[in-house]
Give the backbone structure.
Amino acid sequence: MRRCSRTGCVNPAVATLTYAYADSTAVVGPLATYSEPHSYDLCEEHALRLTAPLGWEVVRHEGEFVAPEPSVDDLTALAEAVREAGRGDRPVDPPVAPTSGRRGHLRVLPDPVDD
């Protein structure tokens, strides 16, 4: 479940805010399917109370904002991931011992040997 992007708000997101800078417009619509880097998820309270700077227009979705229900595909993918992680017959790769040498700016040292 995605949460509201407003600082300190823990409510579930039900709307997405996107800015159209070229048009000086803030668009508040239904929650987007995926979280985008240049948009903001908002809870119902913040979606309804949003104001824009002077000279900007707010275009708001008419109707109710409702949280999306998880789809069958989402629940199936989650169940399969949990099942795969819990399998005991999966081969486990042993950890690789570090070797001495340089990698980038860090240096890997072998374990000290007691003399």
Remarks:
- Strands lie at 15-20, 25-30, 39-42, 57-60, 101-103, 106-108.
- The mean pLDDT is 79.
